Amino acid sequence: MNRRFMGATLFVLTVGLLSALAPTAAHAEAGFTHIVRPGDTLASIAQQYYGDARRESVLVAENGLTAEGGQAIVIGLRLRIPWVTYHRVRAGETFANLAQQYYGDSRRAFAIIDANRTDGEQPDEGAELLIPYPLRHIARQTENIPRIARVYFGDDREDARRVRRFNNLRYNRVTRGQIVLVPLADLVLSEEGRRIVAEETGDEPEGGEVRTIQDEINAELPSLAEHLRRGRYAEAVALANRLLGIRLLTGNQIVTIQRDLGVAYVALGRDDLAVEAFRVAIDRQPDLELDTLRTSPIVMRAFRTAKESRRPLPFVGDEEDAGPPDAAVDAPDAGAPAAE
Fold it and tell me: Most CB atoms closer than 10 Å: which of 14, 87, 136, 264?
């Protein structure tokens, strides 16, 4: 084999390897370059950015390093620090096309579903989803899928199964040099990591804030239902309008809050506001129905009126999307009728 052919072959292999190691375009923005300073180790850098020194294995894989964790690294070396991506769901999006967008394969939708603990039927419009980072691991001589999974997750058969499924592999065997994608849902920046990135780039790392707020809203929804159950309708209206004022709700959250708000308004004698609240809920979920056995006739009447006059609303992420303006309602008399 002549030198020119060998050189060309080496060039092609090198470009191919670098392309395989590069993050997908959808994940490229969720990363930062750390320049190694005196005293830095892979473990100390992992501790800085992730709050966990064991994440040095991520840095090794992400940057194509061959050095074992804990060894000294060269001052001035540029290390890419990756983290998970967040996505705000728009109307019409599915888990399958999100997986195609972020991973290039719709079959990997299960990783997004698992990371967000959803039922998997359809992503909730307006929800901010966590998109696991697809770390590229180059298999070594003695490795297989369970051993690779153990490096990043621990000794759990379910994690090995997830890695195998993500790579569309039927068996645990892999060959030396084979690239295995490892979906990491917990690869999030620590507070110190976020501070470092913000100071170095001038921009706060984006993503996760909306998801946190939406989780907090979910935690308050049982209180709204409890107010209705106990006949505390003024309190229910106050809580519902406060939550609607946050303007970062998911489509399902809007439906739940507006439905309960409609019930409370009927009990307070404000059928006009009840119809408007029900209409907003129905516009978001046209097949919405109330339990006819547990719902009072006056509530059902307002609900049917809303169904007969429904109209489309803008995308849930718009500023004016959450529903009608707040309405001041006096506290009900002690004898206010029960709504359900």
Answer: 264
